[in-house]
Each structure stands twice: as C-alpha cells, then as structure tokens.
Write the structure tokens for this entry.
Amino acid sequence: MLAELRVRDLAVIRDAHLDLGPGLNVLTGETGAGKSLLVDALALLLGERATGELVRPGAERAVVEGVFETGGRRDLLAALDELGLEAEDGRLVVKREVQGSGRSRAWVNGSPLTVGALEALGARLVDLHGQHETQSLLRPDAQRAILDAFADAAEAADAVRRTHGAWAGLLEERRDLELRRAEARKRADYLRHVADEIARVAPKAGEAEAVESEARRLAHADELGRTASELAGVLEADEGGAMGQLAHAARLLGALERIDPEGAKGWREMLDAAVVNAGELARAIGDYAATVEADPARLAAVEGRRDLLYRLDQKYGPGVERVLETLAEARRELELLDTAGTDLAALDTRIADADAAFRSCCRTLTSKRTAAAKKLGPAVTRHLNGLGMPDGVFRVGLEALIDASASGAERVEFLVRLNPGMDERPLARSASGGELSRVMLALKAELARHDAIPTMVFDEVDQGVGGHVAGRVAAALERVAADHQVLVITHLPQVAAIARQHLVVAKASSGGIVQADVRSVAGDERVDEITRMLGGEGATAAARKHAEELLRKTRQRDE
C-alpha cells in the first residue's frame, strides 16, 4: 500500500505531501489544477522515462518520494530479494530524482537502483491506469495472467511452464549432441592423428623439467666433474685446505679455553659443527664428482626425448598438463562417434515423454481457460452495461496456437465492442481514454479479488459520465477498494463522497509563480468541495444540501 507520496519541484508543484490510507482515496480539484501531475509523479516513481522538462522552472531537480507498506507479501519480498533489497520494518522508501539535464537517479531504502529495476519493482507495487499510460491490462501477458488467476489456474500454468522448460531443455541437449557428433565426424582424422601422436610420446606430468635438467647435466659433464673435484680438493687439502684450517682453529681455541674458559664458552660447539658440516660437504662433493661422467649415448637419447616433448608443447601446449588435456579431449570426441547413436536414441525417448507431459499440462490449462473465459466475458459485460456502456460487450478470445509455448497452447486476448454497429476489436485498440478507463474499471471490479497488486490508480475514470451512471461508477470503485487501496482522480461528487480519504488539489499564485498545492479535507471543507463539484462556481444552497446528504448517506452506511 502507498502510505505517503511527496513531490517537490515537479512542473507547477513546489512541495506537495499526500498521506494516503487503505480503501478509496480521491483527488479532486478544478480542471487544470494539477491533479494529473500527481499521477505523473507517481508514474516517475514507478520507473517511467524522465525528461528535464518536468523540473519546475528555477529549480535544479525534481524529487518524488513514496513510502510503501509491504504487508508481508511473499511475491514482493521475493522480488526485493532478487534485487538485493529488503523492506525495513515492513516499509519501502522509494525515491526518484530528475535533474534539469534530464538525467535521473533512483533509490530504494537508500540503495541505488537502475530505472529498469525500478520499473520492474513498481509493477508489483502500483497498477496505474492513466489516460495516456500503457496500461498493464493491455499487455497480452497481463491478460493471460488475469484469465489464469480468474480460472484459479496458477498451478496449471506453472506446470505448463515447467514441462515446457524440461522438454525444451532436452531438445537443446539433443541439438548440442548432434552438433558435437557432426563436428567430431569432420575432425575424426585430425583427432586420431592428435591422439596417436601424443600417445606415442606418452608424456608425463613434470617430465619436461626433469629431462631438461638431465640434458643440461650430461652436456656439461666434463666441466661439472672437474669443478667438483677441485672443490673437494679445496676442502680436503692437507695444507691450506678447509679441513686443515679448521683443525688449526681447534688448537687455537683450546689455548683460549685453558686461559679463559668462560669467555670462550659455546665456541667449541660451533666449531665442532663447522668441522662436521665441512666433512659431510667434502664427502658429498666427492661422491658427486665420482658419478659425473660423459655419456654421449645417454645425452643423445635425453636430447631426443626433450625435442619430442618440445614439439608436443608447441603444437598442443603450453605445458605437459595441457598436452595431456588435449589427448583426453581428442579421445572423448572420438568416443562420441561410437556412443552418440545410443545417446540420441535415449534422448529421443526422454523427449517423447517430456512432450507428452507438456501437452497433457497444456490440455488441462486450456480446459481451465476455456471455462473461465466463458464466465469472465459476461461478468465484465454486466459491469460495462452499468457503467454507461449499455451496448458494451466484453469477450475473452482464445486462439489456438500451431506450436504451444511455455505460456500454453492458445493466445489470450481481451476483445470488446463498445457501440452498436462496431466490430469486435482487441481491447488495446478499441476505446478512447474515458471508455478505456471504464473498461478497466469493469475488469477490476470483477477481478479485484484475483489481483495481487495492492494499489490501483485511476485517472479520469469518470470521463463523460454523469447522472445515474455516476453512482454506478462510485459503487464499482467501492467494490474494488474493498480489496485494494484505490487512488482515483475524479470529477464525480458521488465518488468523492464515498472516499475514506479526500484530497483537494488547488492552483495558486505566489510571487508571480503558479503553484499547485494539495490538502486533505474533512468536515465543512469537504462539504465545500463536494458542493463545488455539484454546482461549480454558481453552487447553490441546494447543491450544498445535496453534498451534505451524500456524505450523510456514506456515514450511515459505514456505521
């Protein structure tokens, strides 16, 4: 429900604040006062395209803010979760800002939101029916959803979507398998060559590094042996060698210890460790020197292996790991040539089963839609006849589709004939603004209990209506308001009199600038406004008495 709406610096509105309640809320005021601007402001808040022309002259930006109560609606909470948002204390604060340049920004509970996401969210918050709006009920998908709701066919429609998705998924899987088999056939000779070439070499993970190390060692065997022998000699030489020098150091340390054992404390352990390490190093180097020897035959073999690995790396690498992956991929594609036939046959069986399940669900949904269409048409027609369209006829058209889709096996379209002698036409192309508004009202009066959107806005729903029809329009709005919050811009005193909340829009001049202001009226002020609506500028005492009578009847009925 829309609890509050605040508009600043939008066209002639400087600062307007609306407190709205449940049930029927009305906006009244003289023609040109700016009532429809408030609907335009709400449309902006719901994601409509913005332009800089909307900004009030002299202001930098226009701002529209709305406070919505979520009422614990699961569908709305799920939509918020998809957008990464959540209600705070059961409320959403939606804000839209439009700069003079035309650039706009939006926030929900302080978090920025794209205009596209705002539009998707707004469609779950408010159903707005303005004279020039693209109304939700005119969209084929919305008409289909309404019929399904009226038919209590939500589960059947969901089953159609699910089974269609399963069937389409299997078809896609089959197409993919066929494409992969065809590609494997074209590449079969190449794949066999790749698999054979890599398998013959049989590379192992980490082998390239090991082969490279061994080749380098064999290629420098003479130099390595000579250098290692020389290093061992440096360590082990009787005179001047590291071991001899360490022995001399041990003798000198012994002399120090005899004189000042405390000062030389701990040195012996370090020197002994140095002697042990030097000895072990000398032995290791000697062993290494003994193993290093030139082996031309082994060097040639290792270099040959290195070259094989290098060529594989260049063609199928980089790296042995990638080469092995290429081998596995080639083998899988070749294996596909042997198994695809069996897999396709199994898929065909699953596809046939999925198609049968899908068509069965379609038949169930079609049956529900057909029965509901027969009831909805006459019911809405009766509402039309009572709303100043005595010759109006409404019908739900169902056109069988050649190929059923996730939406079912038929196309749903709302059709109307509003005047004698006219052909039946789709709702979207059949009516003027006022007529279309009343068609919407007739639909909403019948479908209100099925519609999940909590707030409905009607702009000029009473255009061209007067006399006894006005009371019927009021009654229809009241029926819708029993299950929804309704905000209606009206010229009918009969509608204004039954509203729970009455807001008046008035235009005034301040400092040479025209402004529109909004205020809530009650008591005598409300009587004054309804009197004006009944009699215009020349309202009489009789008009005032009539206004009081309308309000009195409303109070008595509510009590």
